[in-house]
């Protein structure tokens, strides 16, 4: 069974409702929503009027909400105002924000009307995630939300890359938390994680501030029970001969399946190189550590990628 089949089978067993706030704004999200309903993969909430959708959306698997007519809208405005007033938000601004699909989705999620949100086919990552960071927040035992990408290719071990979408310049503590959060996710969805903390240096072959940041992260991350090692270059992480030659003694060298990048530039560029030149499919970004699952699509996403992201969102509940 390949990883997509594994994810689909697991997700089918979970009864959950996922909000697709862009279904009336983007043809790909519309098509994905239609398929999710038809194949009984998930219950969904979309926004707008019944007239915006074809007859297949008239299904027990789908709820269409007209935001402006939603009975709890003014209650949601008050809730958002209470949450953000100490950050300077006024009630008038809160009323305007909750009437928009991005903030409204998060209020529905916060209030338990749905179990997850998948958005970002038309919105930028920052616009998709800011309301989620403000309203949904991180899990109580976590300090940061991080964005990971599951990279898959036939007959190849699935790889998880992070952070590829959110944290511009993570500290050592952040990198260690990214490593452990990714290991948790990989273990839950794929199998035993082997985590490489990436750098331009392998095991002290170079010095400098950027290397030290990763070395310090490795020390912190090693306090977990996971197999985590570094700092190492990506060739040491993926190729056994190079790992041996460069002195990586742990089982991570040449076997890594979770790659933690030192910053957002390298993570974002890295996954796109593997996707475009290596022929891998990128699934995500999968946002780890939100209190309730919110996942961010790439604006270049396909219908299949949207469906896969919805299925993964169910697994994060
Ligand atoms: C998402 C992003 C806009 C958040 O920026 P921000 O300036 O912190 O936004 P806000 O101040 O409104 O943040 C909202 C809250 O979330 C918190 N937050 C920000 N990043 C967080 C993270 N990674 N984990 C947990 N909380 C976070 C902020 O501290 C803030 O908390 P507060 O309300 O208690 O002050 C910013 O991290 C960003 O632009 N990242 C890059 C995204 C991007 O463009 N990616 C492109 C690649 S796909």
Short synopsis of the structure:
This protein has 317 residues and is α/β, with parallel strands linked by helices. It folds into two domains: 1-137 and 292-317, Rossmann fold (3-Layer(aba) Sandwich), CATH 3.40.50; 141-289, Rossmann fold, CATH 3.40.50.
**Count of DSSP-assigned helices:** 12
Based on CA atoms alone, the radius of gyration comes out at: 20 Å
The CATH topology of the largest domain, please? Answer: Rossmann fold
Strand element count: 11
Enumerate the strands of the largest sheet in spatial order, edge to edge or round the barrel.
8-7-9-6-5-10
The unique ligands bound to this protein are:
coenzyme A
Head-to-tail CA distance between termini: 23 Å
Name given to the CATH architecture of the largest domain? 3-Layer(aba) Sandwich
State the CATH class of the largest domain.
Answer: Alpha Beta
Going by helix content, strand content and strand pairing, the class is alpha/beta
Shape designation? globular
Q: What kind of assembly state do the chains in view correspond to? A: single chain
Beta percentage is: 15-25%
Are there runs of 5+ residues with pLDDT below 50, and where? none
Described by strand count, sense and barrel closure, the largest sheet is: 6 strands, mixed
Measured as a percent range, the helix fraction is 40-55%
- Mean of all residue-level pLDDT scores: 97
| Secondary-structure element string | HEHEEHHHEHEEHEHEHHEHEEH
Instruction: Compute the number of structural domains.
Output: 2
